């Protein structure tokens, strides 16, 4: 029983971090129809930002995360203006190769600035403790991740369903031309969505630094899983990425524990099957 | 020009002539032959380039002609490599037999997976191509009893070609072998792209609605393209395994798939010789920069990719076209 | 009465709660010049898509030459003798005019599957394609890329492609749409010269064209047939006048 709880718990915390990173990608891909494989690089930047502010400058944990997120968000705004904007109408191949190019550049820069090895991140004492729930002891760090994930999901739901910005976002994802014809300015919305997505990625990368190791190959390491969550969850839907992340995180942890010979094979096979069944994501309407 | 048709020449000139062999097309082959004689120390790299040209040609059929973007094409290269390699371990060392085996196997896998995944399009299709690659890679990593796992296939004994010609250590035989296979593959692909079938593939890329409205069975044509492309990629993989006498899990990576896509965009997508130019450019750059500094290989690759996508979508051949047009106007 | 070449029986199509085609019974006879009209959003193009097989019905049947083709895919129906043009040009923009038609011809002649014979060597295909261009008077543009042509000429290429399939049934979706007034004459004369034995259904908003071209009119409103008859009957039909012509004057009475 403890083992099952342990697997669930670890799976859940992995899932939440995946969700935090993937939701931004799902939003931007749904909104701008842009295949941005470099999304993981923004998460990586968030992690490295935490290392810079927290380890190198010695600032407190949460402050470092906040500063890192802010910095990456600003950088992403600049990138959107300078580069991404020019490629919104481009072919799939061009977008894919552009974003792969970006991953390469980001990875090389990270390696130059921080070296090739995995970065160490010191979490505050409160998060290093183990909480015991009866006979089962849980890492408080992972508990924090789970809480953060749910809080974020709640916030996203509120944002998308209750605010006018959220309504505009949903309209533009659904049918951009129609949205523009009723006065929604897509240019502004794009940059806003892009920054929101990058902020979420950076936040996720920093928060999850203990679980998803911060190193130059980060974007490629996580790319597969993030893409799976986005594709299976469906672009721009609310519940899709959350549920997909849950399924993926828990199943992957369970498989790695109980069926290590299979490894990630099951996850990839599951993705193929799910995509064939529901090409637009498991929660899409079509 | 022969007047074998009642259609006036100026109306159909391009259509009637374009499939004919043009003198300038001999250039890449002359260069390839010159390398053999003038750069005997670079034949190992040269052989790898020829293999990559083959691989890039197979992908161009999908990307440049049928208009299908695949992130997972390395799965056919890798399967072809492992198939040929495993065959030698079980006693069949003759390379041409290995080629044929990989051709048929990968062609069949291509037809099968194409039939399944080509019902989808857009992001779903892209992810499915990646998913199949990831499944293959994971399988190769885990099934150590068959593939040698993470260490790769050990104990490959590649026999003499047709029982007569042994591979030598200076890659001379390997180079000519790869060249011969490439030549056959290239001629076939060249005929294909000018055939009605090949033009219908391009038609699908231009306007898929129109294609089905003129009575073309679009899906089955695409599946055939996928199968042929997979077969050629498998042959390239087999040659790779045979000339190196080794297969490792690096033939089944996203990095390889992305690499061959990069080669295409560097050279020029949808133009037969784009594969030649792009693969040569990429591999030579990689060889040079990786020796100077492996970190900076990625930096420059990334910068170059971004630059090409933003400013020169037609790749090197596209640039050459523009230069020629500019020169002609002067 | 000539033979019925295409008909629908109780054809229905809905998207969730939205009914776009509502129990449509439609008949097209050999040699017909049948116009389908109706306000925007009436479901005319959807209906054509149901006829050609691009869209599957929710219920009901489509019959061609008396045979139930409801389960047949689009390309299968084309092979049986149905061709269409699109409301917005669907052409191979970077290919020449000649090749655009040649691709259709090679599909029709059954040689399109050939993998290794160059298209440039298929004389019968090229000659038939060129002949088709001559019939529409656009042979001078044969070697030009479609992208370079004016919209009106592109519209003619669209028609040429459909005709090169030697169809017995031709569905034209707003052939004059988007064509500037200076060029609409060439579309009209092309339509006039169409083979009288082909059964033609035409969707149009241009009432002058409709009344000049059609000898039978079906009116669609919100997916349902609300009127059917000769041009004379339709132009005097009260309901049609109210829903379609509205307060504006009728172009031809």
From TrEMBL, chain A:
GO cellular component terms given for this protein: plasma membrane
Pfam families in alphabetical order: BPD_transp_2
Localization: Cell membrane
GO molecular-function term, one example from the UniProt record: transmembrane transporter activity
Keywords: Amino-acid transport, Cell membrane, Membrane, Transmembrane, Transmembrane helix, Transport
InterPro entries noted in UniProt: ABC_transp_permease, BCAA_transport_permease
Main location: membrane
Residue stretches spanning the membrane: 6-27, 34-53, 59-84, 96-114, 141-160, 189-213, 225-250, 257-277
Record keyword Ligase present: no
GO BP terms, alphabetized: amino acid transport
Membrane topology: Multi-pass membrane protein
Residues spanning the signal sequence: none
Annotated family: Belongs to the binding-protein-dependent transport system permease family. LivHM subfamily.
Protein name (database record): Branched-chain amino acid transport system permease protein
UniProtKB/TrEMBL annotation, chain B:
Location of this chain's protein in the cell: Cell membrane
GO CC annotation: plasma membrane
Main location: membrane
Database matches in Pfam families: BPD_transp_2 (PF02653)
GO MF, any single term: branched-chain amino acid transmembrane transporter activity
Transmembrane segments: 74-93, 99-118, 125-145, 174-197, 218-239, 259-284, 296-320
PANTHER family reported for this sequence: ABC TRANSPORTER ATP-BINDING PROTEIN (PTHR30482:SF17), HIGH-AFFINITY BRANCHED-CHAIN AMINO ACID TRANSPORT SYSTEM PERMEASE (PTHR30482)
The protein's name: Branched-chain amino acid transport system permease protein
Organism field: Pusillimonas noertemannii
Automatic annotation (TrEMBL), chain C:
A Pfam family reported for this protein in Swiss-Prot or TrEMBL: ABC_tran
Top-level taxon in the UniProt lineage: Bacteria
PROSITE patterns, alphabetized: ABC_TRANSPORTER_2 (PS50893)
Coiled-coil region list: none
InterPro entries from the UniProt entry: AAA+_ATPase, ABC_AA/LPS_Transport, ABC_transporter-like_ATP-bd, BCA_ABC_TP_C, P-loop_NTPase
A molecular-function term among this protein's GO annotations: ATP hydrolysis activity
PANTHER family associated with the record: ABC TRANSPORTER ATP-BINDING PROTEIN, CONSERVED COMPONENT OF ABC TRANSPORTER FOR NATURAL AMINO ACIDS-RELATED
Protein name: Branched-chain amino acid transport system ATP-binding protein
Organism field: Pusillimonas noertemannii
């Amino acid at each position: 029983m403890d083992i099952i709880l342990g697997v669930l718990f670890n799976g859940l915390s992995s899932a939440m971090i995946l969700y935090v990173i993937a939701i931004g990608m799902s939003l931007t891909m749904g909104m701008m129809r842009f295949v941005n494989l470099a999304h993981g690089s923004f998460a990586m930047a968030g992690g490295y930002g935490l290392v810079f502010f927290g380890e190198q400058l010695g600032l407190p944990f949460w402050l470092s995360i906040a500063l890192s997120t802010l910095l990456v968000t600003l950088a992403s705004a600049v990138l959107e203006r300078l580069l991404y904007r020019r490629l919104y109408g481009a072919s799939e191949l061009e977008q894919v190769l552009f974003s792969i190019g970006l991953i390469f550049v980001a990875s090389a820069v990270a390696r130059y600035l921080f070296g090739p090895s995995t970065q160490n991140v010191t979490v505050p004492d409160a998060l290093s403790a183990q909480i015991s729930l009866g006979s089962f002891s849980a890492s408080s760090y992972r508990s924090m991740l789970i809480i953060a994930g749910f809080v974020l999901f709640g916030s996203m739901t509120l944002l998308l369903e209750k605010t006018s910005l959220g309504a505009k976002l949903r309209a533009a994802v659904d049918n951009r031309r129609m949205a523009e014809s009723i006065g929604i300015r897509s240019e502004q919305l794009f940059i806003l969505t892009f920054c929101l997505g990058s902020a979420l990625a950076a936040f996720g990368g920093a928060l999850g630094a203990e679980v998803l190791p911060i190193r130059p190959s980060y974007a490629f390491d996580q790319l597969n899983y993030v893409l799976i969550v986005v594709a299976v969850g469906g672009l721009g839907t609310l519940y899709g990425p959350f549920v997909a992340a849950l399924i993926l995180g828990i199943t992957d942890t369970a498989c790695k524990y109980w069926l290590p010979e299979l490894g990630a094979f099951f996850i990839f096979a599951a993705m193929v099957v799910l995509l064939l069944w529901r090409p637009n994501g498991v929660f899409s309407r079509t | 020009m022969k007047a074998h048709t009642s259609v006036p020449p100026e109306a159909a000139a391009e259509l009637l002539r374009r499939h004919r062999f043009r003198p300038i097309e001999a250039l890449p082959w002359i260069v390839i032959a010159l390398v053999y004689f003038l750069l005997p120390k670079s034949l190992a790299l040269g052989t790898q380039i020829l293999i990559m040209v083959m691989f890039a040609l197979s992908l161009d059929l999908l990307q440049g002609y049928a208009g299908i973007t695949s992130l997972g094409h390395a799965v056919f290269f890798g399967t072809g490599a492992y198939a040929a390699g495993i065959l030698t371990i079980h006693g069949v060392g003759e390379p041409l037999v290995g080629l044929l085996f990989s051709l048929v196997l990968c062609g069949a896998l291509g037809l099968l997976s194409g039939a399944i995944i080509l019902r989808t399009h857009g992001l779903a299709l892209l992810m499915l191509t990646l998913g199949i690659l990831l499944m293959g890679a994971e399988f190769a990593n885990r099934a150590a009893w068959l593939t040698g796992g993470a260490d790769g296939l050990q104990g490959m004994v590649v026999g003499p070609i047709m029982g007569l010609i042994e591979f030598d250590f200076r890659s001379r035989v390997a180079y000519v072998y790869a060249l011969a296979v490439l030549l056959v593959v290239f001629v076939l692909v060249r005929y294909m792209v000018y055939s009605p079938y090949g033009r219908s593939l391009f038609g699908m890329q231009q306007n898929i609605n129109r294609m089905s409205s003129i009575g073309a069975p679009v899906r089955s044509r695409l599946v055939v393209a996928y199968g042929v492309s997979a077969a050629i990629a498998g042959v390239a993989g087999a040659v790779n395994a045979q000339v190196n006498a080794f297969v490792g899990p690096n033939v089944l990576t996203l990095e390889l798939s992305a690499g061959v896509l990069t080669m295409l965009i560097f050279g020029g997508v949808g133009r037969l010789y784009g594969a030649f130019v792009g693969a040569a450019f990429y591999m030579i750059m990689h060889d040079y920069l990786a020796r100077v500094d492996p970190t900076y290989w990625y930096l420059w690759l990334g910068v170059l990719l971004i630059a090409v996508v933003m400013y020169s979508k037609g790749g090197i051949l596209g640039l050459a076209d523009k230069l020629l047009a500019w020169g002609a106007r002067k | 009465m000539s033979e019925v070449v295409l008909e629908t029986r109780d054809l229905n199509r809905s998207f969730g709660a939205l009914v776009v085609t509502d129990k449509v019974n439609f008949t097209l006879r050999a040699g017909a010049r049948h116009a389908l009209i109706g306000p925007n959003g009436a479901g005319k193009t959807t209906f054509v898509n149901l006829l050609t097989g691009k869209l599957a019905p929710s219920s009901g049947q489509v019959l061609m030459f008396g045979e139930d083709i409801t389960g047949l895919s689009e390309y299968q129906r084309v092979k049986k003798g149905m061709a269409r043009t699109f409301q917005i040009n669907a052409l191979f923009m970077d290919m020449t005019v000649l090749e655009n038609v040649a691709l259709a011809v090679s599909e029709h002649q059954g040689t399109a599957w050939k993998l290794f014979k160059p298209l440039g060597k298929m004389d019968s295909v090229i000659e038939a394609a060129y002949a088709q261009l001559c019939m529409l008077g656009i042979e001078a543009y044969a070697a030009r890329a479609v992208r370079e042509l004016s919209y009106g000429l592109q519209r003619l290429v669209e028609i040429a492609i459909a005709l090169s399939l030697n169809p017995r049934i031709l569905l034209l979706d707003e052939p004059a749409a988007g064509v500037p007034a200076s060029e609409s004459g060439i579309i009209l004369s092309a339509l006039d010269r169409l083979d009288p034995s082909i059964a033609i259904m035409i969707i149009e908003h241009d009432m002058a064209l409709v009344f000049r071209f059609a000898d039978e009119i079906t009116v669609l409103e919100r997916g349902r047939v609300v009127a059917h008859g000769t041009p004379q009957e339709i132009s005097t039909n009260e309901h049609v006048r109210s829903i379609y012509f509205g307060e504006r004057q009728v172009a031809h009475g």
